[in-house]
Design a protein that fits this description.
370 residues; alpha/beta; 11 helices; globular; Rossmann fold; Quinone Oxidoreductase, Chain A, domain 1
């Protein structure tokens, strides 16, 4: 079928909205007519060359929801007409991690930047007949996509698809980091550095966990105002040593129990580490450019303070288990989704959407497909 897609062809260049050919689904695959795609910073890292991918051209986009149009003859549990969200790490179901219900650690995860489908072949071709890759095996910046059933999660049809798209990446990444990685407890204190897509959902997650103090830190004052709406008790634009001093002043010199690094870890991890109490947790949810090879945390300081530094992808929980739980919280009014959306865009406005993200004007932009 002939579709429009936003294609990544060159580092540093704008995405090109062009017509490409999308082939039918193979036996284990699903054709999804896309409805809403979140503008996640991860795709922007690819555009800027900070998250290298194995090929160009490639259709970016991974935070998506849509409606199933067709399925392969070996697909199970998914039917035409189903509403679905797409998971940016496939759950193959066969590796040692998937067998333990840890789909966020699936052995196929390292392949999501390569371009081909899960089976190693391609479903997209440009006007010149050249294979076009799919970022995260999804390639969601398009009118439709073909993905393996390993990346498909069926949801209830009454959930708005623009809201549902956010549950595919940013919401579980942040909420889960608080609930499942740091395991914030009632009464704990929390620092969130960077209040964008991940960070704002860490704020939500910390509130759900019963944190007594949630300090939001961001250089954009508007995001601090938004953070209050999502549960932050304090806000600051301080950075570096000033951030450390601010947090220590708010916590009687002790530091927070948990710090979350949700933007630019190369510059923000050490201040977050030093703003954390002894034996506290520092959780990194943000991507660092792969050109950065080290971060300066003095080993003796790490040893003496007995703090833990840890990463969290997908909120350190299986999306197949976490997403239904989060949608349950949304239904009860305990989790904000629609409030995360600052602005919506047409597919041909996608570069403006990323310009707005880079300028700090959006909490989350969402591309809507007519």
């Amino acid at each position: 079928m002939d579709i429009r897609a936003a294609v990544f062809r060159e580092v540093g260049a704008a995405l090109r909205v062009e017509r490409i050919v999308l082939d039918p689904p193979q036996p284990t695959e699903v054709l999804v007519r896309l409805a809403a795609i979140g503008l996640c910073r991860t795709d922007y890292h690819v555009m800027r060359g900070e998250r290298r991918v194995a090929m160009q051209p490639m259709v970016l986009g991974h935070e998506a929801a849509g409606i199933v149009e067709a399925i392969g003859d070996q697909v199970q549990g998914v039917a035409p007409g189903d509403h679905v969200v797409l998971t940016f790490i496939p759950g193959c179901g066969h590796c040692r991690w998937c067998q333990r219900g840890l789909h966020h650690l699936c052995a196929e995860g390292p392949r999501i930047t390569h371009g081909p489908q899960l089976d190693g072949s391609f479903r997209r071709r440009d006007a010149g007949g050249r294979d076009v890759g799919a970022f995260c095996m999804i390639g969601a910046f398009a009118e439709a996509t073909v993905v393996d059933q390993a990346s498909v999660l069926v949801i209830d049809k009454d959930i708005p698809l623009d809201h549902a798209s956010l549950i595919a990446c940013g919401v579980p990444a942040g909420v889960g980091a608080a609930r499942h990685r740091a395991r914030v407890k009632p009464g704990d204190t929390v620092l969130v550095v960077g209040c964008g897509g991940d960070g704002m959902n860490v704020v939500q997650g910390a509130k759900l966990c019963g944190a007594s103090m949630i300090i939001a830190a961001d250089i954009v004052a508007q995001k601090l105002e938004w953070a209050r709406d999502f549960g932050a008790t304090h806000g600051t634009t301080a950075q570096g040593d000033e951030l450390i001093s601010t947090v220590l002043a708010l916590t009687d010199g002790i530091g927070v129990d948990h710090a979350f690094v949700c933007i630019n870890p190369a510059e923000t991890l050490l201040p977050a580490f030093r703003a954390t109490t002894k034996a506290g947790n520092v959780v990194v949810t943000a991507i660092t450019p792969d050109t950065v090879k080290q971060i300066d945390v003095p080993p003796l300081e790490l040893f003496a303070t007995q703090k833990a530094i840890m990463g969290a992808v997908y909120g350190f929980a299986s999306p197949r288990l976490q997403i239904p739980e989060l949608l349950g919280l949304y239904r009860r009014g305990d989790l904000k989704l629609g409030e995360l959306i600052s602005r919506t865009y047409r597919l041909d406005e996608i570069n403006q959407g990323y310009a707005d993200l880079d300028a700090g004007r959006n909490l989350r932009g969402v591309v809507l497909i007519d």
